[in-house]
Amino acid sequence: MFRFPRRALPLAVALIVLIALHLAPQAHAQAYPSKPLRMLVPFAPGGVSDIVARLVSPRLAEALGQSVVVENRVGAGGVIATELAAKAAPDGYTLLTVFDNFAANPYLYKSATYDPVKDFASIGQAVRSRIVVVVNPRLGVKTLDELVRLSNSRKDAMTYASAGGGTSSHLIAELLKLTTGIEATAVHYKGGAPAITDLLGGQVDMMVATMSIALPHVRAGKLNAIAVTSGNRTSLLPGVPAVGETYPGFEAQSWVGFVAPAGTPRAIITRLNAELGKAVAMPQVREKLEGLGFEVALGTPEAFGEWIASESVRWSRVIRERRITVE
What pLDDT is recorded for position 292? Predict the structure, then answer.
């Protein structure tokens, strides 16, 4: 029987420990998942993030061999669910569906104590939605330049509808004002539907809206689309210029993605990214998402992490400079 020399025993023990430490994460990842996952959604059923979560969760469950339970935790603009996810165990069993206000909320809500960069491990962006600046035809403008000139010529400020304080329709409108010098007073609604209804009725002058909610009315001639806020034009409205064509560097969009608590093993993040990518790429899922005005856009965890970091910097500046507060 072979015996280690006494002097070699400490070295052998250290080697065994190192091998065990190296293999432990791999074994954990290979065993994952061994129980159901929960996918937290910060908003009520029927919203954008909820729709995306409920479309991908059955496909993710099938790929992982475990159920994925979608759990809506509503409150404080998404802060409640986000705080819950930040404090969850970093074991891959708690996922958070994040919307475009994820990076802005810490600067909007005093109750938000999470850091969107440090407290989460990015899995990937799932979809994005083009944003379009639309006006009521009675305003008599058809381009962004005409809107700026009208604003400069009026003694009273125009009004714009938003889907709610702190939403993308609010923050992007404020970024547009900051960039162009347009003066417009926010009128907040409880959702995009009532906001667009009042825009159609002429109670407000303009709105920064997702393509899914605005496009049918633009095509029907009930609203004028004067610009898209993405970095380039969209095939959905090829004749409508991007804001960045007149104001270089301007780019803003609505998006939905997935994150996990910080410290979640890299192997698990990689697997979740791959499986979510397959889920949103399935023809029936992609067709449903595109029918709602979304573009499938799941990239790497690193790319999504960089995007969240850049969004955090951007919106903190806008919120500070425009002195935006949310009750």
Answer: 79
